[in-house]
Amino acid sequence: MKILGIGVDIVQNKRIKDLIKNKIFINRTFGKKEIMISKKFFDKTNYFAKRFSAKEALAKALGTGFRNNLNLKDIQILNDKLGKPYFLKTKKIDTIIFRKFKIRKYDLFLSISDEKDHSISFTILKAQ
Hints:
With 128 residues, the chain is an alpha+beta fold. Helix content is 40%, strand content 28%.
């Protein structure tokens, strides 16, 4: 097992609460699946804040930040049947990881937590 990168990010929920009032921000930052699933949640602030934090954590784990054609919307966070969050793997993310690390098989681990005022995410990128 070789860890290729780790990333952590914390976001102030109030900041996201103000930003999600703008539909342009939501559509520019979150994928279609994330937006569709958000309709099931009463507390949209925490829902979007946790995902925003996770996107930032992945960009840090990659070591690239949001450059080289990687955008916030390219990263989507979903949940499995038990509620565990995970990154939706896409061709774009596969390509970015291949270009940087020269690997095709990898695992992404994600942990998200939140409190009233903050949301935090931790990500590990590991070669298989």
